[in-house]
């Protein structure tokens, strides 16, 4: 994505780091200059500055993110005290279900999978810690949107939405219906919305004052969640874990997750949503 507004020399190093992702973790100088729209000489100066502070590492194949970011990532995680409370519960949920468990928080118009306990199932879906997803697609991120303010909801519903798969809910009416169901049942589910043959279910975590803190989710292959009895069991498990974490954080209000109602109403929104891809 070429920048349409001018980038100052001070901003260029950080601007270049925004192109590194799970999908493309390695870049050459020529490729970075091409996608950023910056002169190659400017890119090189910015990369050298990042390299001096171990933010970028140069190797034979080009450039990749450096080890300093591992340290900074640890500091970021430590700055969220609620997640420290949640970690033993997430690990227990993973061991109970054998599926991947996630702690997902909001960052602007996206959700971040801040912590991931990887599945122990023989066939599994891998979610990298630090992965980002839009708030309109995926169970945990859409649950974040459900408990966000009206201004953010209007911004997402009125903005452009990318179709990651054929099932991504990009129509405002469909997205509003999903948000409404999650608001009434405190649960969310997605089947193949971000990646084919994937599934995720999520429940909210609340803090002492009743504020939304994060989403806890279970993720795996869609086949694992295909039959109704299994899906109900997973919904009840993630709901129980979310409540336990919320109570530990001091939440004292009523717990309103309703797995059976959610399961009953979910297929009515989309005939394909309750089936494996």
UniProtKB/TrEMBL annotation:
Stretches assigned to the HTH iclR-type domain: 7-67
GO biological process: negative regulation of DNA-templated transcription
GO terms for MF: DNA binding; DNA-binding transcription factor activity
Residues of the IclR-ED domain: 68-251
Alphabetical list of InterPro entries matching this protein: GAF-like_dom_sf, HTH_MetabolicPath_Reg, Tscrpt_reg_IclR_C, Tscrpt_reg_IclR_N, WH-like_DNA-bd_sf, WH_DNA-bd_sf
Pfam family membership, one: IclR_C
PROSITE patterns from the UniProt entry: HTH_ICLR (PS51077), ICLR_ED (PS51078)
Gene3D superfamilies, A to Z: 3.30.450.40, Winged helix-like DNA-binding domain superfamily/Winged helix DNA-binding domain
Classification via SMART domains: HTH_ICLR
Superkingdom: Bacteria
UniProt xrefs under PANTHER family: HELIX-TURN-HELIX TRANSCRIPTIONAL REGULATOR, ICLR FAMILY, HTH-TYPE TRANSCRIPTIONAL REPRESSOR ALLR
Protein name according to UniProt: IclR family transcriptional regulator
Organism: Pandoraea thiooxydans
